[in-house]
Design brief:
Blueprint (H helix, E strand, L loop, with lengths): L7 E3 L2 E3 L6 E6 L2 E10 L3 H18 L4 H17 L1 H12 L3 H21 L6 E4 L5 E9 L2 E5 L7 H12 L3 E5 L5 H13 L7 E3 L4 H10 L5 E5 L2 H12 L5 E4 L4 E5 L5 H13 L9 E7 H17 L18 H16 L3 E4 L3 E2 L9 E2 L2 E4 L16 E7 L2 H8 L4 E2 L1 E5 L3 H10 L4 E4 L15 E2 L11 H4 L1 E9 L14
Parallel strand pairs: 7-8, 7-10, 8-9, 10-11, 12-13, 12-20, 13-18, 17-18, 20-21
Antiparallel strand pairs: 1-2, 3-4, 5-6, 6-23, 14-17, 15-16, 19-22
């Protein structure tokens, strides 16, 4: 079967990898469906891309920010026109259902228009000077060449979270798309190019993390790294970047809890749990992987939740009737399988699913059943370690305070949810849950682009995407203008 071959984008030119090697991008729902061949690059390709970005920075930083933003407005309009096309191509390479890939493209559209507005809001400050006839202010400056390393689960939305604010702030970019899902990043950049983006402002180098990612992190001309992925890899990125004093933004793993109190709207909590646990086949850093149930409603919730999960239709996401798509690759299937085995060995009970789906319509893909584990205790590995698949644990508790303690007892701190009608407990949870995101009466998934996105503990290192991204992609410069026409000495005792 014929399939297209793609190249790296370096300095406005589409170039094959220096070594000539490629990687196949296949549909996880049907491995006979090859999306295309993408470059398997190495350090020389990264060096060329960084050099192109460095050259482009000389002129791009001088383009007024509102003019840079106009390109994002045009790109957002192009993404709207191409939404269905790009969504279908994303479902082919990533697997999630069309309703979700349309949402992924829509998030990039929203990000384009939101960040375009930042082109007129790169505000600094003016402040009084301690000396007469002296003016003081601060201004934002671009960082320079930035390296962007993105994941496979949101292959257009997350690249847009990084590319758009980096560009509007005046930086130039080298992006390494996820090995499993490069095509959606190519589509995103295609919209930018068609919107008039100058050559070299955004460069794509496709390849593996250990080769391309490492070269990007270690290159001395790359001034900052924005990474989304696992906590284990994020730790390595931070350590390697430290050698050249690069600031690093890390958005990493999660083990997110939905807490359901006895007074909750049970129907709403069930709907939220089903969507949070099995939306995107559980392959979100914000996915609900722990459901904490107060004992008064635990049995009723469990019975209905299991019944609904068993009815979910699993299959190829291009079929509009499908509710749960495949896992992205065989490694993710192995991880889900292994964690179910670990949970059962530690005493958990399998209430639904638990196995890979094979044979028939599943034979050529990587599918896993929506899986629910009961009898889970907070100290079990399944309650503490990220699975990144359609596997959720049910944990029972007595009091609200105990639920908060259980939710906080892990190494991660990305997203949390509380279902209750008690406003006092809702605000207490907002204060006490250790997470970058807290939802009240809504699932743990569903962040919006204009709010800060990120977490605490092993989930992140303090930086935020969303409305916090401009802070990472700019540096502050203090400016002093002395119009006294004489030497004035600050930081000297001038008191009379």
């Amino acid at each position: 079967m014929a399939y297209p071959t793609f190249h790296n984008l370096i300095g406005g030119e589409w170039l094959p990898a220096v070594g000539g090697k490629t990687m196949l991008n296949v549909n996880p729902a049907d491995h006979s469906d090859v999306v295309g061949a993408f470059p398997s690059s190495h350090g020389d390709d990264v060096a060329k891309a960084v050099a192109a970005a460095k050259k482009a920075f000389e002129s791009w930083r001088l383009v007024p920010a509102p003019k840079r933003a106009e390109i994002l407005v045009r790109a957002g309009s192009l993404l709207k026109e191409r939404k269905e096309e790009y969504a279908r191509q994303m479902t082919r390479e990533m697997g999630k259902v069309l309703a979700e890939t349309r949402g992924d493209v829509q998030e990039a559209i929203d990000e384009a228009f939101y960040v375009a507005g930042e082109g007129r809001r790169l505000f600094g400050q003016t402040t009084p000077s301690e000396l007469q006839n002296k003016f003081a202010m601060s201004v934002r400056m671009p960082v320079g060449v930035v390296g962007l390393i993105t994941p496979w689960n949101f292959p257009m939305a997350i690249p847009s979270w990084k590319l758009f604010p980096a560009m509007v702030a005046g930086n130039t970019c080298v992006i390494k798309p996820a090995t499993d899902t490069p095509h959606s990043t190519y589509n995103l950049v295609e919209a930018l190019v068609d919107a008039g983006l100058p050559a070299g402002v955004v460069n794509i180098v496709s390849g593996t993390g250990p080769i391309v990612g490492s070269a990007l992190v270690e290159h001395p001309d790359v001034r900052a790294i924005s990474f989304t992925g696992s906590s284990a890899v994020g730790s390595q990125v931070a350590q390697r970047a430290a050698a050249t004093f690069k600031p690093v933004s890390l958005e990493m793993g999660g083990k997110n809890a939905q807490i359901v109190l006895d007074d909750a709207n049970l129907e709403l909590a069930l709907e939220g749990a089903l969507w949070g646990s099995f939306g995107t086949t559980g392959q979100r850093c914000t996915a609900t992987s722990r459901i904490l149930l107060q004992k008064g409603i635990a049995e009723a919730f469990k019975t209905e939740f299991v019944a609904r999960a068993k009815k979910l239709k699993v299959g190829n996401g291009l079929d509009e009737s499908i509710e749960v798509g495949p896992q992205v690759n065989a490694n993710q299937i192995e991880t889900s399988t292994r964690y179910v085995e670990i949970a059962l060995a530690e005493g958990a009970k399998l209430l639904a699913g638990g196995h890979a789906l094979t044979g028939g319509s599943y034979a050529s893909g990587t599918f896993f059943e929506p899986t629910i584990l009961g009898g889970v205790t907070p100290t079990m590995r399944i309650a503490r370690e990220e699975v990144f698949g359609p596997v959720v644990s049910l944990i029972e508790f007595d009091t609200f305070e105990q639920a908060v303690e259980i939710a906080n007892s892990i190494d991660y701190g990305l997203s949390t949810a509380l279902y209750t009608k008690d406003v006092n407990r809702a605000f207490t949870a907002i204060r006490d849950l250790e997470a970058g995101i807290t939802y009240i009466n809504a699932p743990t998934i569903g962040a919006e682009v204009h709010l800060p996105f990120g977490g605490v503990k092993h989930t992140g290192n303090g930086h935020r995407e969303g409305n916090g991204a401009i802070d990472f992609f700019t540096t502050w410069k203090a400016v002093y203008v002395d119009y006294s026409d004489k030497l004035q000495r600050a930081q000297i005792d001038n008191a009379e």
